[in-house]
Amino acid sequence: MTFVSNLSVAVICSSNMNRSMEAHHFLAKKKYKVRSFGTGDKVKLPGTAVDKPNVFEFGTPYSEIFEDLAQKDKNYYTQNGLLHMLDRNRRIKLAPERFQTCTEQFDVLITCEERVYDQNRESTSNVPVHVINIDIPDNHEEAVAGAFLIDDLVSMLAATSDLDNEIDEVCYSFETENNKNILHCIMFY
């Protein structure tokens, strides 16, 4: 596949279900080099009661999660949008992936909430990566709006001729243009 940029991006949320997958879908359609991940211990989705979430292991195929929820209560999970979300996800990749087990290196990590931004994987070398957080509430509408914001940011980052030296200016421009505060740091793999 030919990408529009050599910039490699990982989009990360807690379960690799909603926010990271919406942005992954959006960026992949625009032909960016993108992957998505979660950082939680398990993949958690709302259940029919607040105290009874649906919990799955990372690596459980989206199709299996879809079938499990459809068997439990197809009408409920259709109405709350989970089956639609899982259908989208299974067309993008096989299963939710946990960031901490990924060995691939990226130029930019974009997290969707500060709690995820604060979680790092083990440092194994001194290769720098830019970590940027854009807080996105975990619901369908905000995930879609967040995907547009992430696309805007990635477009700005991809347009730089020297990411390391221009990233502060890009982050400032992004915040100013979108009236959205972001966090940025450099981490080492």
Q: How would you describe this structure to a colleague?
A:
It is found in: Nucleus. With 189 residues, this protein is α/β, with parallel strands linked by helices. It has two domains: 124 residues, Response regulator (Rossmann fold, 3-Layer(aba) Sandwich), CATH 3.40.50; 50 residues, no CATH class. It has six helices and seven strands, in the order E-H-E-E-E-H-H-E-H-E-H-H-E. It has a five-stranded mixed sheet. A two-stranded antiparallel sheet has the order 3-4. Helix 1 crosses helix 5, helix 2 packs antiparallel against helix 3 and helix 5 packs across helix 6. The radius of gyration is 17 Å and the shape is globular. The mean pLDDT is 94.
Q: How are strands sequenced across the largest beta sheet?
A: 2-1-5-6-7
Instruction: Tell me the count of domains.
Output: 2
Class computed from helices, strands and strand pairing: alpha/beta
Distance between the termini: 26 Å
- Poorly predicted runs are none
What is the rounded Rg? 17 Å
Question: What is the tally of beta strands?
Answer: 7
Portion in helices: 40-55%
Shape: globular
**Can you tell me the CATH superfamily of the largest domain?**
Response regulator
